[in-house]
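mind reviewing both lines:
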Amino acid sequence: MASKDEVKQMLRTIERECLYTSGLTGIKKFQKRVMEAMVEVLREKFVPDHMKPFAYDNGPLPIGNGQTISQPYIVALMTDLLLPEQNDVILEVGAGSGYQAAILSKLVKQIYTIEIIPALAKQAQDRLTKLGLKNIEVCQGDGYYGLPQHGPFDGIIVTAAASHVPPLLIEQLKPGGRLVIPVGLPHSLQYLMLIEKDQKGEVTYREILAVAFVPLTGAGHG
């Protein structure tokens, strides 16, 4: 079980990174409720047993099947960029271990999360169910196409790097919604992008920060 000191140290590291990168992100301090969710959801519950000693380090960790759980700072940043509100319905592409969805579950009404790897989808659903997080639905499938049957969404978050922004995800974004996605090829420069759709349906793109993510796989990226 995590000690309070480990969680506090993780929070201090997130706060330092947030301030350090503020010239690029425009964010000097993450929303209080985002940081509270980072405290409430224990990261150790989402990593393999042999990785638990490193659960609160500010770095990505392997979760099996060639996938990783993102570093806490990046999870906090991507969550903050969504500007999540209590009644929002959010789509996540790339459930992984379920950690990002669990953070969002404390902040929004409903999360639909897609995972292309069947074993990870089952593990994530089992883990989230065991933790009693009832406002998350894990769907096994290709996230490139989104989930139009549950859209449009107030926000969309993609946790693997896409070679381009999937057009169907933009279509499934509500007016006033935000899409946060890393874009770029594996082993080359990737950027975390914030895509906003205004009330008229016009879309703007903004580069936030250079990042390194595992690649998004599936029909549009295979």
User: Anything to note?
Assistant: The CA atoms of residues 44 and 53 lie 8 Å apart. The chain has a mean pLDDT of 93. Strands lie at 61-64, 67-69, 89-93, 110-115, 136-140, 153-158, 173-183, 190-197, 203-211.
